[in-house]
Amino acid sequence: MILGVYWYFKFPENLYRFQFFKFLKGFGGHANNLAELEARVSVDHPENLIRKLEELHQRFTRIYLDIKINENYLLISTGDYTLFDEHFQFVSEIEKLLILANAQVIDTPFEVKSSRNLSPENVTYETIEHRFIQITGSDFRKNNAENISVRIDCNLPTIHKENLINDLIRIYTEENIHVFYYYDCDFKEHSNLMLFFSNGRQMENAVQHVDINAFGSRVRQLEQNYPLHFGNFGGMQYYPKNGPHITLITDKDYILNTY
To answer: Strand, helix or coil at 219?
Structure first.
């Protein structure tokens, strides 16, 4: 799984500017559609451009590219439920090719007569085996960014809290996780904890994959070392609101509200 900074509902303003591509926001809930980047253009030598797009795609094998064709007209698109920086970097490179090809933006739909589909490399979709793991998004951060994180709620006697946090630090440093912060509530010699694990911006050639189930198994093993229980204890008045306590963070403005 890829954790970290992404875009879905809004465009990453002030980070990227496109001459040809439009951002089509995703819709959650019942609509449940991808966010997409789409360019509708006319070029003089479409086969030359398509060949260069195929060559470019070899650099960005994790991303799909769809090309719909009618003679000199092309509709070029890509998308996902989580558009990382890598997607926008890919489109930035396509924009350079369109400029070199003297492409012209067209505004009207056209009949599709053929298509080329450049599929992403095979991706294994993980089923999360550990029920205590929640995958959470965020509200908007810097440049309209959102963030996908692992959240774990747990509780234990306060006397063990510091040692637990130190053990979690050792785990995340070995599991390709570069963001860890938490909220807590201490009461009656007991602590409720709300833990968040994530990463920062996901750039070309530096996308960070996290084995969620391996990470979860290591967290579960901590039950053998501490009187640790998953979930919160004692009712809503003891909900962990104190924080965030940050142990490690990158791209902070994209992860947390800093005001």
So the answer is: helix
SS3 of residue 91 by DSSP: helix
d(CA 169, CA 171): 5
The neighbouring-strand residues paired with 216 are none
pLDDT of 57 above 70: yes
As a whole number of Å, the end-to-end CA separation of the chain is 30
Question: pTM value?
Answer: 0.92
What secondary structure does DSSP assign to 163-183, as a single string?
A: HHHHHHHHHHHHTT--EEEEE
Sign (positive or negative) of CA dihedral 70, 75, 80, 86: positive
DSSP run (H or E) holding 246: strand 242-248
| CA distance readout (Å), 95 to 16, 25, 114 | 11, 19, 22
How crowded is residue 233: how many other Cβ atoms within 10 Å of its Cβ? 16
pLDDT in tens, 126-185: 789 999 999 999 999 999 999 999 999 999 999 999 999 999 999 998 999 999 999 999
Q: In sequence order, which residues have a C-beta less than 8 Å from that of residue 197 and are 6 or more positions away?
A: 3, 149, 150, 152, 172, 177, 179, 180, 215
- Encoded tokens for 218: 């290591």
CA 221 to chain centre: 27
